[in-house]
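Bit of a strange request maybe. I'm writing a small parser for structure token strings and I need a real example to test against, not something I typed by hand. Could someone generate the tokens for this chain?
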Amino acid sequence: MGKPSPDQPDLFGWTPRHGIAADCDWSKTLIAPGWVRYFFALVPSPEDAAAIDALAHELRWLHGLRGRPLGPERYHVTLCGIERYGGAARDEIAALERTAASMVAAQFTVAFDHVAGHGRPGDRQAIFLETSETFPIVDKLQRNLRREMRRRGFRTPSKFGLHVALLYDECSFSKPMIPPVSFPVREFVLVRSVHGESRHDHLARWPLGGGRLSTPA
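Reply from user aminoacidic:
Good idea to test on real output. This should exercise your parser:
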């Protein structure tokens, strides 16, 4: 399999032992130019993504944040993934698709009840939607995906906290509680994210609760 990023040993800014690191310097966890991420994700519907975007803009205004919300097309919950310089080989993408196609899971709903910033004051911080609840069905899906990825030769980190990234900002940010934000999950998606392009390409998607693989037109 391809070589992982030397400056990003823990994919997407989490640590295998401790989940999302509260003292992580988020200004240094973004991949350098040339790196491409491929990850499985839970993606809200356009209507739910628009509601998350409205919340992100409201938080930005209320807390005097300067970072721009990621936008409805990029909100997601990461399950697990890989990164490759210059992009993954075709056989790697095919292996990821076979991994996903082997998963069996019921549909469910995820919910978030607070927003938190992660990073040192003065450094670039990640502003996340987070949850105080546990979602065993998500844990199981993550665990099964990681197990199958490792069986197919991929290096992937351990479980991390359930979250949705809203924006990145250099301002300090407290931990406000918010009215519950939830969305139903009926599928999961293989996403490609190229550093610096500010977009997510959905390469393939798999329905939960049974069904066949479908790919975007």
